[in-house]
C-alpha cells in the first residue's frame, strides 16, 4: 500500500502537503517542477513552484485540463465569452495559445483531454443536452474525429489515458464510464447512480483521476473507485466540505478546493497493477472512398494484380447493401456493380479451364443464397458472368482454392456452420458448380482462406478460433484447432488472408474483439508472431481501423510503399470525420517492421 495525499476542506488539522495552487484559483492543474496553471475570474495564470506568477493570459476561462510530455504541457480551457475551447502550450515560463477549436453547434458545458497510445491528443467537448464531439488537436489544424451522444447535464469530464476511459459526471443522476477510443462501437458503464445502494447521495460534481481509479465530489463527501478487472470497486466515502467545487491532481496527490481552502488527508491507495504493453500500431498508407450506403455495409476485400503494371492493381470490395466496388491503389472508386447484397469476395488469376485462362472473382449473394462469378479483364475491368445457386439458407463467407492441376474450387459457408466445397466448372463458355463435399463447424463461421501451394484450408469460427484442414477433397480430414480465441485472438474471429513470402508464409486474421490483427505462420506448428492495430495518420486525415470484418493481403510487388506487399482491411467505423465505412491500405513492409518479421 502507498499513501495518497488528498488535499481537501476537511474537519481536523491539515497534514503537511506540497505547494498549493493560488488561493483564488477556481480550477488548477499541476505542472512539472512544482508549477501550477490556474484559472481565476479574469485570467489563466502560470505560477512557479515558489508561488510567483510568471505568465498570464487574459481570459474568462473555465474547465481546465492538461497533458504533459517532453518540455511542454498541452492545456485546454473553455473560453466562456466565445463559447469555444482554447488550447495552449505551457513551457519555458510562457503561455502560447494555439489555434482555437472551431465552436460546435452547442454551448459547451465541459471539455477534457485524451492522449492515445500513439501519443496523439484528443479533445472532448460536451454540451448541456448531451451533444458531444471528439477532436484531434494539431498545431497545423484541428480535425473532428466523431460526434457522440452523452448524457444531458454533464458538468465535468476526465479521461484515463491508460485505459482509454472517458468519465462523465451527469448532474443529479450518476457517474458514467465511456470508451475514449473513437474506433469501435460506443460503450458505457454506470459506476454509480444517485439513490442506488451504497452509491451517490447528492449527484456527481468535480472529477479527478487517481492511479488506476477516479474520484468524484458527491455533495459533502468524496467517493473513489478502483478498476477491478472489467468493472469498478467503490471505496468508503470520505467527508468533504460541502462547498467543494474543484479537484486537481499532482502525481499521488489529490487536491480539492473547498470553503476553507486547500487541505490534506493521507489515504491508503494501492498502486495499480502494471498495464500490459499496448500492441504496436501500424499507420495506413491510404484509404478508399467511402461506400455509398450508411451503416454496416462494407465487408470484404480482394486484390487483383495487373499483368504488367504493378501500380494498376485493383481492390475489389463488397457492399452488403448494394454490390461490388472496385478501387485503384489510391483508393478511388473505378467501378460499381450493383449485384445485390454481396458478403465475401475472393480472387484467383490465370485460372485454367483447358486451353482457356481467366482471372475470376466469386462473391456470396445473400438475397439469393448464390455464388456470383465475375470475370476480370487485363485492364482490371470487372463484369458479372454467372450466378450459381446453393442449397444454403443463409450464405455468408467464401474463399477460393486454385489446385495445382488447374481449375478453380470454392468454399462457401452458412451461418449455421455448414461448409459446401464446390468445383467451378466451365463448359461451352458457361459457368457451373459441382458439389465435392460438405463439412461444418459447431457454430457460426465466416472467414476462410486456402493456401494453394500447400493445399491447406484455414477456417475461422467466430466464437471459438482458427481451424485447419486439407483443401483437397480427396485428402479430407476433420478440422484441427490451431489457435483458439483467448488473449491473442479475441472473438469475433473474422476475415483472414495469406501472405506468401519467398522465405515463409504468414496468415493474417482479424481479431475483431480487440480491434487488432494477428499474424502467425501459415505452416505447422503455426507460431504466432504477435498482433498489431491500425492507427491514425493525422497528417493525411486517415483514421484507424476497427471492427474489421474482411481483409486480404498479397506479397506481390505493387510498387511504391507496397513493394513488399499490401494488406487491405475493412474499417467498421469510419472516423475523422464520421462517415460510411471504407477500406484501409497498409504497406506490408510496415507490418514487418512492427512485428519484426522477415
Features of this protein?
598 residues, mainly beta, five-stranded mixed sheet
Describe the structure.
The chain has 598 residues and is mostly beta strands. The protein is 1% helix and 53% strand. It is built from 1 helix and 51 strands. Strands 1, 23, 24, 25 and 26 form a 5-stranded mixed β-sheet that branches. Strands 18, 19, 20, 21 and 22 form a 5-stranded antiparallel β-sheet that branches. Strands 27-48-47-46-45 form a 5-stranded mixed β-sheet. Strand 7 and strand 8 (84-91) form a beta hairpin. The longest helix has 8 residues, at 588-595. The protein starts with a strand and ends with a helix. The model is unreliable at 1-18 (pLDDT under 50).
Describe the biggest sheet?
Answer: 5 strands, mixed
Q: Radius of gyration from the CA trace?
A: 28 Å
- Counting copies of identical and different chains, the oligomeric state is single chain
- Share of helix among residues? under 10%
